[in-house]
Specification:
This protein is an all-alpha fold and about 650 residues long. About 50% of the residues lie in helices and about 5% in strands. It is built from 31 helices and six strands. Helix 3 packs across helix 6.
Amino acid sequence: MRSPRGPRNRARATVTGTLAGMRVSRTRHARLPGLRPTSRRRIALARIALARSAARAARGRSERSSPPLDLRAGPTAEPPLDAHPSRARHRSGGLRRRLLLTASLLGLVGAGCEGTIEGRASEAETPSAADAETECSASPGSRPLLAERRLTSEELLRTFQVLVGEERMAESADLVAQLPSDRLHESPDELDPLPSQAHTDASLRLAIDLAERIAASRESRAALATECADQPSSEPCVEALLDGFAPRAFRRPLSQAERDRLSATGPSDEVDETFTVLVARLLSSPALTFHHWSSPPTPYDVASRIAYTTTGGPPDDVLVGAASRDELSTPTQIRAQVTRLLESPWGRRRVADFFRYWLRLDAVPVPSRRASERLGLDAGELQRSALAEVDRFVEQMVFTRSAEFRELITSPLVYPEDDALAGLYGTAVWHDGDPPVEAPHHRGLLGRVALLLSQADRTSPIMRGIRLRERLLCQEIEPPDLEIIDSRVDELGAIDRTEHSTREATERLTGVTPCYSCHQLINPPGFVFESFDPLGAYRTAEVVYDETGREIARHAVDTTVADLRIGPEAKSASRFDDVVDLVADQAMAHVCVADSLVEFYFAHEVEACATADVVDAIAGSQSFVDIIVTAIATEEMLR
């Protein structure tokens, strides 16, 4: 987050963090009033995707000469699109559900922050099925999801680890640390498809260092090719490397021209020079460091696409074997491989990374040290423990319980592995293998302590409201004008916290024009989160402490709001559960997670028609594993 320059502005940014609570986006798009461009694009794309989905369902029924669909009736099951049983079971809900999803999105684009982000739309704004089909038929191929690009730093390190082993990578830890991090935090725009000079230099130094370390070890040479154990510069060693190690590095068989070029290194009088140079060339070759796709893709291209998209690393032996037998040519075959790889350790790790990306867990603050110390807790340890608990929650829900999206949002299960976190949840400590532990007040992802932590010794309804809209609904709101904040703070002066609750103070700060135009959307869900204290523990009263930790005031917690302004209809709320249940069934949340899945797994901005099937899977109550499989195993893999 960028800080305003100058001590005065920095101080005001600190004082008014509760008032503003708005992050400066890294997006490269020009700003528009109110909603960020990415939010407007996402909503527009969701309209097209859902309308297209409705048109596709209607056309499919017409082609099967089925009776007219009664919109008053329940969902009608559709025949499976492929042989996968879960897809056959869940591809249901039909036109009625899709029309309802589309209808719930119609009012989501408003004129800035004038209270119409979730407003109503006129019929003129409704996308017709014909328009959606025209848009989607024109867009495929214009910007493929699987564009050629360099391997990310994480993909490169994972590839090296598979090729040379963990021990060699550990020995080169200093050079590994020099590789620039390019992990996605907010947007695929952050990833440059071409390497920077720093990235190129660091990866080349690492490749040379690994080659030298392998050459110096008989055991390591033998691991690459047994012929290289005692005679690393011999012709049999070179041929063995080109037959075995090189195809693994390039993720495909070598052409004869490549073999000739690489073998030109030739034998040398130096014992390990030929070996070292050849291995370094292979580890630094663009054939390894870039994703290259033929058109149409070869089976080995498809294997590489599946592997890197699903696990962040190169194809395993099973996938390579399938490619060699030409068993990656149908959507069913691809779906089966993606499903298998998702259950692997690296597939599971990538799922955890997705949730970190979607929920922006890298931005979770270290909680207030003052609040932590009052409970005898270490703030840094609490943050780490809370983040690790999110990972355990995801692991247990997605892979152990085969949870659907709604269960991820509404489940009361928690997994605290230490006394401090268990105390905040109000539960016993959970150990691996124990029965699940329930914390009824902390339901789902929104109820994770990690997402409730406050950096200040007080809660921030504004930050919590923005977090809900930005992370769960993908609605990014423009930051406020700092001059307006300065003016408002000067006008009000200090607010006595012994006289006013956090909610009352927030209402005083933001309840005037122009603040209220945006805060009528931000504050209501944030006020419902007031049932949690700055460390995420459930509370019924807000306690105010002085600098010594002595209680100086106590306020009743009011979580009642007349309209959450989430969705096309007015919805009141009086407790946290009301928000949880509304978000779980909210079409915009389904579109948000579908959008985020495609963005994360393909490191690519979402095109208009890329998420319709994923939204279908979410709304159709498929398991989250099947939802991810639907997002990855697209026809793009075969194009």
